[in-house]
Specification:
InterPro entries: Aminoglycoside_PTrfase (IPR002575), Kinase-like_dom_sf (IPR011009). This is Aminoglycoside phosphotransferase domain-containing protein. It holds the Pfam family APH. Residues 106-161 form the Aminoglycoside phosphotransferase domain. There is one protein chain. With 245 residues, the chain is α+β, with helices and mostly antiparallel strands. It is built from eight helices and ten strands. The chain has a five-stranded antiparallel sheet, with helices on one face. A three-stranded antiparallel sheet has the order 6-8-9. A hairpin with a 2-residue loop joins β8 and β9 (128-134). The protein starts with a strand and ends with a helix. The relative contact order is 0.12. Bound molecules: adenosine-5'-diphosphate (ADP) and magnesium ion. Residues 9, 118-119, 136 line the site of magnesium ion (MG).
Length: 245
């Protein structure tokens, strides 16, 4: 069967083969396989199904039909409040599936660790695009609920200098925390800053070490962009924190 490269990945060479997706196996492949099998066993529909390893050693996953929001310009539905609420509820659902399992180990849940519109499949629901699944689980690991929620806030609200209305972003932050049912409100802004700082350092260090994907990201302006986003959240942290109380 023919292979079609899938657009939108920055890191992996991902191809579609019929109704399946193939991606290079990574250090996390065994864990991700177990996680996706857990979702299937529990009937959670928000992730691809794990189909094993193909003859070239690649992970095989089900291809999920829909719109993956990896391009910079997106239809407004991708950022709508209703969409944000649905994202938060989807995250809550898979966190709850993993809580207390061996995969979460001593941690609260299994975190996806890269939740963003570019890793989300949207489908029309009543004529409007809404999030239905997350892809790109290879960074998944045991962690704290607030970590994924913080990543969601950064990436889906787009917290950074491109925000035109800080009060609106603060309301959206509240919306995500409420829709998720987040208990750790005080941890949210520190976790957003932690992600931004870690992301910038990670890209910088890996690019310096010559990792071609990270060199591409850095040269495309990602380091500067993430540093500016970190500074923006720091500058507005009081307004953002107030909205959460
Ligand atoms: N299971 C899937 N169903 C549909 N499309 C997928 C699936 N997995 C990946 N893709 C497509 O391939 C692209 C890259 O895959 P992704 O897993 O996000 O890789 P990367 O780690 O490079 O970001 C995505 O932007 C999406 O368009
Ligand atoms: Mg991706």
């Amino acid at each position: 069967m023919s292979e079609a490269p899938l657009p939108g990945g920055f890191v992996q060479h991902v191809v579609r083969v019929g109704a399946t997706v193939r991606r290079p196996a990574s250090a996390g492949t065994a864990f991700v396989g177990e996680l996706l099998k857990l979702f299937e066993a529990r009937g959670w529909p928000g992730a691809p199904r794990y189909l094993g390893i193909d003859e070239y050693g690649r992970e095989m996953l089900t291809y999920l039909d829909g719109h993956v929001a990896w391009e910079r310009e997106q239809p407004p539905a991708v950022y709508a409040a209703e969409t944000l609420e649905r994202v938060a509820r989807l995250v809550r659902a898979f966190h709850d599936v993993t809580a207390g399992t061996g995969l979460a180990g001593a941690h609260e849940v299994v975190c996806h660790n890269d939740l963003a519109p570019r890793n989300t499949v949207y489908r029309p629901v009543g004529g409007t695009l809404r999030p239905v699944a997350f892809i790109d689980w290879d960074l998944a690991a045991p962690g704290a609920r607030v970590h994924d929620v913080a990543h969601v806030c950064w990436q889906y609200i787009g917290l950074g200098p491109r925000v035109e209305d800080v009060a609106d972003s603060a309301r959206r932050l509240r919306l995500v925390a409420d829709a998720y049912g987040l208990a750790d409100r005080d941890g949210l802004i520190p976790a957003i800053l932690w992600w931004q700082d870690r992301c910038r350092r990670g890209i910088e260090a890996a690019a310096r070490a010559g990792d071609p994907a990270m060199v591409r990201l850095r040269d495309a302006g990602a380091v500067t962009e993430v540093r500016d986003a970190f500074a923006w959240v720091g500058a507005h942290r009081d307004v953002l924190a107030r909205a959460l109380r």
